[in-house]
Amino acid sequence: MSERFSIGQLADLPDGAGVRVEAFEHRIAVFRIGDDVYAIGDRCSHAEASLAEGELFDKDVECPRHGSAFNVETGEPDSFPATRPVPVYTTEVADGEVFLTIEEAS
Fold it and tell me: How far apart (Å, rounded) are the C-alpha atoms in residues 27 and 95?
């Protein structure tokens, strides 16, 4: 089962920065890069820090605690100390509205 829901208007998301969204017991970091929106798990797999608070460099977000970088498209860590990926969520922009889909594990 999956849950699809609106997180607001594209124009309201800051370009090049993260926003934290909490829904259905998931904490999600959402990043807008131009007209594209990416969503990954908000907790760094190394130290539980909020990735939404990290700095975005191209398509990598740097954890504010220890500097691990995660790719916002794949959730994979691109640098140490993190070695495990974070979850990735599907996003869609339709008529200027941003939708997020959470797939529940079966």
Answer: 25
**8 Å CB contact between 49 and 63:** yes
CATH architecture, domain 2-103: 3-layer Sandwich (2.102)
Separation of alpha carbons 11 and 45, rounded Å: 30
The reported pTM is 0.93
Rounded distance between C-alpha atoms, residue 25 and residue 96, angstroms: 26
Under DSSP, is residue 53 helix (H, G, I), strand (E, B) or coil? helix
pLDDT tens, residue by residue, 13-53 = 999 999 999 998 999 999 999 999 999 999 999 988 999 99
- Name the residue ranges covered by the structural domains of the chain: 2-103
| Residue 42: DSSP 8-state | S
Q: In the block, which residue shows the tokens 């959402």? A: 30
